[in-house]
Design a protein that fits this description.
The protein is mostly helical and 127 residues long. The protein folds into two domains: 61 residues, Helicase, Ruva Protein, domain 3 (Orthogonal Bundle), CATH 1.10.8; 57 residues, 30s ribosomal protein s13, domain 2 (Irregular). Helices cover 50% and strands 3% of the residues. It contains seven helices and two strands, in the order E-E-H-H-H-H-H-H-H. It has a two-stranded antiparallel sheet. The radius of gyration is 23 Å and the shape is elongated. 13% of the residues are buried.
Length: 127
């Protein structure tokens, strides 16, 4: 199993799919890296040699921000928004959708599971 940037690449997948397990590597970046290094896009990840893995690792480190560096950069960007008190920062702080989605209905991913509000019992239920 090849290990690139501290992440184990999944076995028995084509390289253009297997590289997507890295944070910050999507379809286009995976294809760009493999063509720059000269590896066949459909080559199985279990057939990857150590030299090829090293060349992919070097290409990613030199030309792209991925994994820990990218996570740190995104986290610092969000922290900056929170610190300056921008609208987007406030939405991040409150755990609400940041990009203008409605919250009256939906938005359960950001808001968490629905919590029932204990209301007053109606007169009919009390009798």
């Amino acid at each position: 199993m090849a290990r690139i940037l501290g992440v184990d690449i999944p076995r028995n997948k084509s390289m253009r799919i297997a590289l997507r397990s890295l944070y910050g590597v999507g379809p286009k970046v995976a294809v760009d890296v493999l063509t720059a290094v000269g590896i066949d896009l459909e080559k199985n990840s279990s057939e990857l040699t150590e030299e090829e893995a090293h060349s992919v690792r070097k290409q990613l480190e030199d030309n792209y921000t991925v994994e820990g560096d990218l996570r740190r950069e995104v986290g610092l960007n969000i922290k900056r928004l929170k610190d300056i008190g921008s609208y987007r920062g406030v939405r991040h702080r409150r755990g609400l959708p940041v990009r203008g989605q409605r919250t009256s209905t939906n938005a359960r991913t950001r808001k968490g599971p629905a919590v029932a509000i204990a209301g007053k019992k109606s007169v009919k239920q009390m009798k």
